[in-house]
Amino acid sequence: MVQVHPQPPIQNYFHATKRGAGGINYDVALASNPIVQNMEKHSQKSLIGRVVKEIKLNRLIESGDTVIVAVSGGPDSICLLDILDRLKDSLGIDIKAAHFNHKLRGGESDADAEFVKIICRERGIECLVGEPPAGSAINSENDARIARYSFFEKLQKGEGRVKIALAHNANDLVETFLMRLVRGTGLRGLRSIPSRRGKFIRPLLPFSRSEIEEYLTKHSLDYCTDSSNFDLRYTRNFFRLEIIPRLVKVNPNFIHTMADTVGSIEDDYDYLERVAIESLNKIIIRESDREIICDWRGWLILHPSLRRLVLRQAFSRLVELKDITQTQLQEVVDVLKSGV
After folding, report:
1. C-alpha dihedral, 146 to 148 to 152 to 157, nearest 10°
2. How far apart are CA 307 and CA 300, in angstroms?
3. Which of 6, 45, 251, 271 is spaced 20 to 30 Å from 124 by Cα?
4. For 44-149, where are the E strands, in sequence order?
5. Strand partners, 15
6. CA–CA separation, 191 vs 205, rounded Å?
């Protein structure tokens, strides 16, 4: 006698089936889906609901975290502050705000700082304000960025589980991608802006500036407008105000299309980077804090797409990668390929 035991239902699966005209039908079933559980109070079509999904999918925030929101006073950061303020109880987090006054626009900069303080006071949110040290000079966009990030990093020290939430959005991502593409970069540079880097997180990265503006209008939220954002002497502003609007005329969905492309590049690069690390470890003959000796023939038989990445990984164990340019790296590749 043959006994047939019923199979337990499959609880976690991805199911795809072919349909006519080359299409695909698919469905997903998960036994326990924390994303859905945390989105019960918010429509998945709303910006808040989609931000929750982004947070959970990429594990940007965990219950018990303290999240310091970088608030310039502009539309993106006000949107992020409002969303995380609404979500703090359901996410189980504490939030604070941080504002860095670059002192670049005189009274306008001071007014932005005061605006952020008032917003935070009205919401009962602690606001941490910083500014450049006395005597220091900020002469470029990069100087401003370095000073700002230095302030944010100091806020993390000595704290427990702290995340710094930045309000970069899909438009910022695409602007950075195009600027690097025009200047010249490798696959690593084309990743543009990551959704997380260490304790820095970007919950709004998948969403366009227009979606953020719609949210601000819907919830009647005030924000500051930085007059320097319209100065075409800044490269980013030139791309934002002159180049991207023309590309949007060609493809109205250009921002989201390009953001998806950048996401694919980031996934591909992450995979290649892991393979490069494995490949490097296989060809290392001797390694110390001061030198790495690798098997040249082992490097030479690697796929061309891995050779440069393996060299980058090797150099990163000895020096800061920012000290090595793409041109210098290519020169090393060329020498190794020639066998000189």
Report:
1. 50
2. 8
3. 45
4. 66-70, 94-100, 127-130
5. 27
6. 13
Containing 25, the helix (H) or strand (E) segment is strand 24-29
Coil, strand or helix at 299:
helix
Distant-in-sequence contacts of 297-300, Cβ < 8 A, 24+ apart: 299/336, 300/336, 300/337
Residue 186 to residue 195: CA distance in whole angstroms? 19
- Taking alpha carbons only, the member of 88, 109, 89, 106 closest to residue 97 is 88
pLDDT, tens only, 273-322: 999 999 999 999 999 888 899 999 999 999 988 998 999 899 888 887 66
Q: Which two tokens stand for residue 308?
A: 């440069």
Residue 293, φ and ψ in degrees, nearest 5? -110, 125
User: DSSP secondary structure string, 102-124?
Assistant: ---STHHHHHHHHHHHHHHHHHT
* Dihedral over alpha carbons 25, 31, 36, 40 (to 10 degrees): 120
Is-contact 99 73, C-beta < 8 A?
yes
Nearest 5°: CA angle at 211, between 113 and 142? Answer: 45
Predicted pLDDT of residue 68: 96
pLDDT above 90: residue 2: no
Residue 34 C-beta-side C-alpha neighbours within 13 Å:
11
Q: 270: alpha, beta or left, given left = phi > 0 and alpha = psi -120 to 50?
A: alpha
Judged by phi (left if over 0) then psi (alpha if -120 to 50, else beta), residue 73 lies in left
pTM score, two decimals? Answer: 0.80
84 has pLDDT over 70:
yes
Q: 236, exposed or middle or buried, with CB in 10 Å at 0-12, 13-18, 19+?
A: middle
**pLDDT (0 to 100) of residue 40:** 47
What whole-number distance in Å separates Cα of residue 182 and Cα of residue 278? 32
Q: Report residue 22 as tokens.
A: 């080359």
Count, in order, helices (H) and strands (E) of the chain.
14, 10
The answer to whether 101 and 112 have CB atoms below 8 angstroms apart is yes
Total length of the chain: 340
